[in-house]
């Protein structure tokens, strides 16, 4: 996919991440008054007036990182500049020209690419003369902008599109990815190493320092002719341990990444015990009905001494309500078993998009009700009239009954397990709704009788009723 790229660069605290969010129209990057918040380069696909380009946010040049990651941050900045077709050099009108601005300009003089000089925080026309001082940097076409006042956004888009390569005739421009994978887990379980292995590049910073990743980073990669997005997320801490804005926004970015994803990979470190953070993450994934794979990483360290069955039992004991989730054992650093993991993720993606006909659902539902009737409610037996699948991703089934409140959680779980065992949704969440219907009209009885007859005549992919589990 040939999409031009635009990189945002500048010294710390000039509003690079604010401009990134402003142009995208969403709060993607963390914005904080402290310098050095952005470390990895963030990428988002921008569409404007039918044109597409990738926008890249980078860390602040010249900042000494508090966790001794300055070299890694600089490598991310360099990579962003090298892959870009256009540079947005951001300065701060209110702060004026600084020595760090001159340092950035000197570095960009060595880059043979077009540059737009964005004088940010030029909140009104009265500050335009102050912005003119940045002409002394000698690099880039000057545009006064203000994120706060939404000033000159359209002009900026016009200048960007005017300077980008023409990829209009390239096939596939703007195509959506085949699948989005959210990689989540607590700190230092190997998420970023896994993402770099997928991208086959040092796409995000990897360090033993807990909390190295602060934003959710979209990384595009290709597999078997399909385009994917892996979303690397910040490592999470227990809620009571969140003490800074960075941790707070990191938590919300990770949660939003789960919501955006088609499949979520929940990472565990095979050398560490399951923690409360792991359980909180799993609960959030389950709440959002996302297909999930439990990924046990760094398996090469214990492969010769710990059988996989032990970890399988361990996970099932701690996450009994997610027993449908498959489990993968990988080594992210070497890439071992990663192809099999991605193939399995695609299987879950397809399962979540599967539709099953109403006759098949009703035939299976009748068998389940005959095998185990719902318990009495107010001395009456609840009746089920029919069921139907009403949505995909996740598969969602609605049942019409006379007394929805008469189906306790245990019986609802029984029905979901029946659907999971006999429909092609074996490894993904299933949502079940029970709606109230007092009685059936003659026309509805006739229609449902016809559906039942169709179900009897349909190809029975679940086997005869005599083979139903428990018979």
From TrEMBL:
<dbReference type="InterPro" id="IPR031166">
    <property type="entry name" value="G_ENGA"/>
</dbReference>
<keyword id="KW-0690">Ribosome biogenesis</keyword>
<comment type="function">
    <text>GTPase that plays an essential role in the late steps of ribosome biogenesis.</text>
</comment>
<feature type="binding site">
    <location>
        <begin position="10"/>
        <end position="17"/>
    </location>
    <ligand>
        <name>GTP 1</name>
    </ligand>
</feature>
<dbReference type="InterPro" id="IPR006073">
    <property type="entry name" value="GTP-bd"/>
</dbReference>
<dbReference type="GO" id="GO:0042254">
    <property type="term" value="P:ribosome biogenesis"/>
</dbReference>
<dbReference type="InterPro" id="IPR016484">
    <property type="entry name" value="GTPase_Der"/>
</dbReference>
<feature type="binding site">
    <location>
        <begin position="232"/>
        <end position="236"/>
    </location>
    <ligand>
        <name>GTP 2</name>
    </ligand>
</feature>
<dbReference type="InterPro" id="IPR027417">
    <property type="entry name" value="P-loop_NTPase"/>
</dbReference>
<dbReference type="GO" id="GO:0043022">
    <property type="term" value="F:ribosome binding"/>
</dbReference>
<dbReference type="GO" id="GO:0005525">
    <property type="term" value="F:GTP binding"/>
</dbReference>
<comment type="subunit">
    <text>Associates with the 50S ribosomal subunit.</text>
</comment>
<feature type="binding site">
    <location>
        <begin position="297"/>
        <end position="300"/>
    </location>
    <ligand>
        <name>GTP 2</name>
    </ligand>
</feature>
<dbReference type="Pfam" id="PF01926">
    <property type="entry name" value="MMR_HSR1"/>
</dbReference>
<protein>
    <recommendedName>
        <fullName>GTPase Der</fullName>
    </recommendedName>
</protein>
<dbReference type="InterPro" id="IPR032859">
    <property type="entry name" value="KH_dom-like"/>
</dbReference>
<keyword id="KW-0677">Repeat</keyword>
<feature type="domain" description="EngA-type G">
    <location>
        <begin position="179"/>
        <end position="353"/>
    </location>
</feature>
<feature type="compositionally biased region" description="Basic and acidic residues">
    <location>
        <begin position="437"/>
        <end position="446"/>
    </location>
</feature>
<keyword id="KW-0342">GTP-binding</keyword>
<dbReference type="InterPro" id="IPR005225">
    <property type="entry name" value="Small_GTP-bd"/>
</dbReference>
<feature type="binding site">
    <location>
        <begin position="120"/>
        <end position="123"/>
    </location>
    <ligand>
        <name>GTP 1</name>
    </ligand>
</feature>
<feature type="binding site">
    <location>
        <begin position="57"/>
        <end position="61"/>
    </location>
    <ligand>
        <name>GTP 1</name>
    </ligand>
</feature>
<comment type="similarity">
    <text>Belongs to the TRAFAC class TrmE-Era-EngA-EngB-Septin-like GTPase superfamily. EngA (Der) GTPase family.</text>
</comment>
<dbReference type="InterPro" id="IPR015946">
    <property type="entry name" value="KH_dom-like_a/b"/>
</dbReference>
<dbReference type="Pfam" id="PF14714">
    <property type="entry name" value="KH_dom-like"/>
</dbReference>
<feature type="binding site">
    <location>
        <begin position="185"/>
        <end position="192"/>
    </location>
    <ligand>
        <name>GTP 2</name>
    </ligand>
</feature>
<keyword id="KW-0547">Nucleotide-binding</keyword>
<feature type="region of interest" description="Disordered">
    <location>
        <begin position="437"/>
        <end position="471"/>
    </location>
</feature>
């Amino acid at each position: 996919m040939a999409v031009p790229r635009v990189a945002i660069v500048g010294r710390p605290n000039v509003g690079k991440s604010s401009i990134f969010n402003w142009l995208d129209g969403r709060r993607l990057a963390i914005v904080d008054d402290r310098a050095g918040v952005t470390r990895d380069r963030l990428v988002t696909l921008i569409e404007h007036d039918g044109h597409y380009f990738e926008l890249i946010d980078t860390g602040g040049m010249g900042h000494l990182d508090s966790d001794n990651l300055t070299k890694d941050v600089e490598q991310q900045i360099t990579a962003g500049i090298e892959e870009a077709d256009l540079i947005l050099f951001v300065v701060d009108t209110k702060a004026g020209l600084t020595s760090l601005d001159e340092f950035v300009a000197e570095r960009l003089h060595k880059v043979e690419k077009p540059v737009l000089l964005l004088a940010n925080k030029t909140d009104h026309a009265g500050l335009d003369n102050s912005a003119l001082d940045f002409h002394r940097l000698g690099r880039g076409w000057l545009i006064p902008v203000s994120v706060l006042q939404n000033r000159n956004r359209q002009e900026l888009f016009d200048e960007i599109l005017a300077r980008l390569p023409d990829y209009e005739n390239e096939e596939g421009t703007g195509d959506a990815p085949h699948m989005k994978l959210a990689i989540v887990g607590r700190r230092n379980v190997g998420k970023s190493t896994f993402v770099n292995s997928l991208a086959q590049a040092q796409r995000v910073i990897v360090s033993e320092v807990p909390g190295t990743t602060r934003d959710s980073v979209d990384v595009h990669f290709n597999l078997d002719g399909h385009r994917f997005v892996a979303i690397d997320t910040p490592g999470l801490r227990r809620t009571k341990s969140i003490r800074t804005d960075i941790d707070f926004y990191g938590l919300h970015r990770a949660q939003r990444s789960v919501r955006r994803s088609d499949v979520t990979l929940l990472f565990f470190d095979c050398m560490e015990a399951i923690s409360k953070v792991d359980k909180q993450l799993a609960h959030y994934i389950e709440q959002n009905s996302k297909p999930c794979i439990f990924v046990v990483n760094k398996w090469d360290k214990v492969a010769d001494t710990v059988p996989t069955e032990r970890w399988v039992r361990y996970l099932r004991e701690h996450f009994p309500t997610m027993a449908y989730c498959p489990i993968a054992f990988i080594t992210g650093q070497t890439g071992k078993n990663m192809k099999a993991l991605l193939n399995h993720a695609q299987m879950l993606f397809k399962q979540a998009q599967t539709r099953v006909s109403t006759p098949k659902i009703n035939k299976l539902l009748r068998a389940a009700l005959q095998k185990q009737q719902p318990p009495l409610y107010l001395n009456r037996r609840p009746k089920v009239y029919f069921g139907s699948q009403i949505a995909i991703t996740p598969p969602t089934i609605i049942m019409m009954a006379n007394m929805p409140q008469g189906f306790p959680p245990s019986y609802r779980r029984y029905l979901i397990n029946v659907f999971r065992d006999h429909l092609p949704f074996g490894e993904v969440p299933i949502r079940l709704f029970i709606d109230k219907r007092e009685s059936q009209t003659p026309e509805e009885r006739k229609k449902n009788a016809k559906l039942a007859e169709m179900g009897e005549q349909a190809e029975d992919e679940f086997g005869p009723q005599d083979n139903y589990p428990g018979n």
